[in-house]
Amino acid sequence: MRAGFGLILGAALAASAVPGARAADLKIALIAGKTGPLEAYAKQTETGLMMGLEYLTKGTMQLGDRKITVIVKDDQLKADLAKTLLEQAYADDKVDLAIGTSSSAAALAMLPVAEEMGKVLIVEPAVADAITGEKWNKYIFRTARNSTQDAYAAAAAIPAEGEVSIATLAQDYAFGRDGVAALKDALKAIRPNAKVVFEEYAPQTTTDFTASAQRLFDALKDKPGRKIIPIIWAGQHPLAKIADLKPERFGIEIAPGGNILPVMKLYRAYPGLEGAIYYYWDFPKNAMNQWFVTEHVKRYGAPPDFFTAGGFAAASAALAAVQKAGGTDPDKLVAAMEGLTFDTPKGPMTFRKEDHQALQEMYHFKVKKDGKDDNDLLELVATIPADKLPIPIRNKR
């Protein structure tokens, strides 16, 4: 833990011993898509949030003389419901700040509520660029990576020399389309030798990828140099179905991107595949992540995952913000959070002042050939520092 946040938090915990009436609870709402295809993401976010609060308060679940209360609400991945639940959390439950949600579409619906109610919303894990872009407002902070960070990391994992042709496969909604647009921008910025020559979008419910694969193969098969299909997909992953159609006969590679461990178990059948990922339990080397991995294995029989780390990061951001602001006044929180650096299992993150996006490192991975179990999947090729990911500022400030 960094000295600054550690000293502040330690002083606050010590203050809890001072006699007198206990202050009002520190209330946090977590809104997550616990029903539907992203249920695993929501469960991980909640687990990570609670483990983060536990670690940062040394198990007391108390900050200073304020007991921490977390109210969890299921938006069922429905944008209208997410909006209503956030309104209720702010107005009826009187939460001091909120965290959420799993779906980018639902998160986008929540943004105006935070502005109207004048209260902080920490976006985790939704990634659509518009959240900290054109739909952003000053009460929005995001610990999750955005589509552009994913894209710059994916671009950084592509060879910097030689001709590279790319055909993308993505889901036909905000997450997928933002991801492809961001990848194209990232390639122009840091990998001008690589070009997107074809874009394939499929509904989220797609199960038969034969037609999509044929269009992708046709677009790439006659191109010179490296030929790569990056897959931008949330939920049930199409890697195996694309790979079964043997793209290698055309010299085509697949870049599946990072995902949660249950999905990445599919990757074991394709050793040598490369991509970029937001978090993998074995990559960060710090005391916080060591505790996180050890405790998560002890409690759940497996290491922490992609979105578990995100929930932990949101917990750290929330507590660091309250400490720096000296309370939960919304405008003081906003001022405190702009430029705030806070510790997470993957290392320090910093909220960029201009758009409140958390700047953070990413990882270039290769699928292992000889992992010892289903969770020992990736080897680290390179850590991609935050300053090597020149994320554009796209908000309306």
From TrEMBL:
Annotated Gene3D superfamilies: 3.40.50.2300
UniProt keyword Transport present: yes
Pfam families: Peripla_BP_6
Membrane spanning residue stretches: none
Signal sequence, renumbered to the chain: 1-23
Coiled coil location: none
Domain of life: Bacteria
InterPro entries given in the database record: BCAA_transport, Leu-bd, Peripla_BP_I
CDD domains registered for this protein in UniProt: PBP1_SBP-like
Keyword Transport: yes
Family according to the record: Belongs to the leucine-binding protein family.
Name this protein carries in UniProt: Substrate-binding domain-containing protein
